[in-house]
Specification:
Blueprint: H1 5-17, E1 26-39, E2 54-65, E3 70-83, E4 91-103, E5 108-119, E6 146-158, E7 163-176, E8 184-196, E9 201-214, E10 223-239, E11 242-257, E12 262-278, E13 282-292, E14 302-313, E15 319-332, E16 336-343, E17 354-361, E18 366-379, E19 384-397, E20 408-421, E21 425-426
Antiparallel strand pairs: 1-2, 1-20, 1-21, 2-3, 3-4, 4-5, 5-6, 6-7, 7-8, 8-9, 9-10, 10-11, 11-12, 12-13, 13-14, 14-15, 15-18, 16-17, 18-19, 19-20
């Protein structure tokens, strides 16, 4: 697949805005993370589970600016992963992340982000890109190398004391190095108009559109998917510490598949809702989201429903506990044709032989994924902290043609590690 054009737009925008001013100061922070642990299913397989004991070392640097009209965080991280009993599985992953805001005037602001990851597997994503509670996690695939790039540019403008307008354009690209998996790209845009009814209530409406391209593989024809949504929104603050947000509306979906299947369309709904509560030492949130999925590895466009929750507890300045749980269901956006690999009997066929059988994929066919993650951090000194984390993932598919894995697969991981970083260098 080609380069992501949105990535170039975001980087050029950041360079153009990054003019020196006397009111802002840049900071450079250097550091590293190191961790070791246990993974009970390296290949994410139900037939060939392999316990491994990985060691990871991740040096990183962060350049940030948090004063003046321009604010940004630019981080680059390299992770070397070594397996004590599997040297052929050793990898080097890279992550580049840029997030920033620019205040054009008292009434207009720009946001921009760019994230480039070259990694071994969607199941081994670095912690900076792990999904937040309620967001759509990536589909778990077998261990393969891939490149993922996501970029966005947004604009917010205050029209009056009660009215604001906003818009955003984003682009996501997933490129696997293995032809068995589906490379994909997604281009999205949205705009909204919002009104403050009172100090506690804000309402709005808007329009969003998304176009996705899925490349051809040995098992699947190429396809495209388009989504057009109208939505209304409402944000209500019950108190300074309790907030509810709701956004929902009708969505029209159209998919085009080269070869069998042709064009299909249908109406559904997209939306999201959240409830957030803050206490003195505890924050909790519960979220639901229904949207198109940008994960690759499935047959064409998919719709994802995600329910997620997060609880963080900070009993002191040195301790932090975080618990995340989520459930996601992916369904085919419309009826589609995929090809399913079926093992051939041996004999008479040679061992490892298989048949390719066309399979009708209905909107009732789905992939379900459950995730549970607990992390504990302890700050030892100003520069050093230690952490432990455990995670459990299970994924179940109603038909193997939907996912590049078996019908039901589980994985458990546990890690202990430490993080060290320098005092910020000012310049």
């Amino acid at each position: 697949m080609g380069r992501n054009p949105m990535a170039l737009v975001v980087l050029l925008l950041a360079l153009l805005l990054a003019r020196p001013t006397t009111s802002a100061a840049e900071q450079l922070v250097l550091g590293f993370d190191t961790q070791t642990g246990w993974n009970d299913n390296l290949g994410f397989s139900d037939t060939d589970q392999e316990d491994v004991f990985p060691y990871r070392f991740s040096p990183w640097l962060e350049l940030r600016r948090r004063r003046g009209d321009l604010n940004y965080d630019l981080r680059y991280r390299v992770t070397y992963e070594d397996y004590f009993d599997r040297s052929d599985a050793d990898t080097i992953d890279q992550l580049l992340r840029l997030r920033g805001t620019y205040r054009v005037s008292e009434t207009t602001g720009i946001t921009f982000s760019e994230q480039f990851a070259r990694e071994q597997s969607l199941t081994q994503r670095l912690e900076e890109v792990e999904p937040e509670a309620g967001e759509v996690p990536d589909l778990e695939n077998r261990r393969r190398r891939f490149v993922r790039n996501a970029a966005s540019v947004g604009l917010t403008h205050i029209l009056s004391r009660r009215w604001t307008m906003s818009g955003e354009v984003s682009n996501t690209l997933v490129d696997f190095r293995d032809d068995e998996f589906v490379d994909s790209s997604s281009l999205s845009g949205n705009g909204s108009l919002n009104h403050a009814l009172s100090a506690r209530d804000r309402v709005g409406f808007g329009l969003s559109a998304t176009h996705q391209d899925f490349e051809e593989t040995d098992l699947r024809p190429s396809s495209q998917a388009d989504y057009l949504s109208l939505f209304g929104s409402w944000i209500h603050e019950f108190s300074p510490n309790l907030t509810m947000a709701v956004q929902a509306g009708p969505t029209w979906i159209r998919t085009d598949t080269d070869g069998p299947g042709g064009s299909q369309s249908r109406f559904t709904y997209f939306g999201n809702g959240s409830l957030s509560k803050r206490w003195e030492t505890v924050n909790a949130s519960l979220r639901y989201k229904r949207t198109e999925s940008t994960s690759s590895g499935v047959s064409g466009g998919t719709v994802a429903d995600t329910v997620g929750g997060r609880i963080t507890w900070k009993p002191s300045l040195r301790w932090n506990f975080e618990l995340n749980a989520s459930w996601t269901r992916r369904e085919s956006a419309t009826e589609q044709i995929a090809v399913q690999r079926v093992a051939a009997p041996s004999p008479p066929f040679p061992p490892g032989s298989f048949f390719l059988i066309p399979r009708q994929i209905d909107t009732d066919d789905s992939v379900d994924q459950w995730n549970l993650r607990l992390r504990v951090d302890r700050r030892v000194t100003r520069h050093l902290s230690v952490f432990g984390r455990v995670s459990w993932t299970t994924q179940e598919s109603s038909v193997e043609a939907l996912a590049s894995s078996s019908r039901q697969v589980d994985r458990f991981q546990a890690f202990l590690g430490l993080r060290w970083q320098t005092t910020p260098f000012l310049f």
